[in-house]
Amino acid sequence: MQSKEEIFSMLTELLVDEFEIPAEDISLEAKLYDELDLDSIDAVDLVVKLRELTGVKIDPESFKQVRTIGDIVNALAEISLAA
Fold it and tell me: For residue 39, what are the domain limits?
């Protein structure tokens, strides 16, 4: 199980490397669609990459409720606890 800090760090690295988002733009409050300019296709790619990195199955339907980086961190932490 990863801590929320570890999840945030992994997510930041992923967003910088795969989506070319500047690290300074990434915070727990950053809005995925409005501030980070991700679209629905990017969101699907993100789910796939997170699944590869964590080994955790993420339901794309539940991911539709995610709006911020903090939402992703919390969702992954909850999934990790349940696993």
Answer: 4-82
pTM of the complete model beyond 0.85: yes
Count CB-CB contacts under 10 A for residue 32: 20
**What is the per-residue pLDDT across 3-53, written as a single tens digit (0 to 9) for each?**
999 999 999 999 999 999 999 999 999 999 999 999 989 988 998 998 888
- Give the amino acid at 40: S
73-83 pLDDT tens trace: 998 888 777 66
CATH number of the structural domain spanning residue 61: 1.10.1200.10
What does the angle CA 36 – CA 41 – CA 42 come to, to the nearest 5 degrees? Answer: 35
Residue 65 is classified by DSSP as T
The total number of structural domains in the chain stands at 1
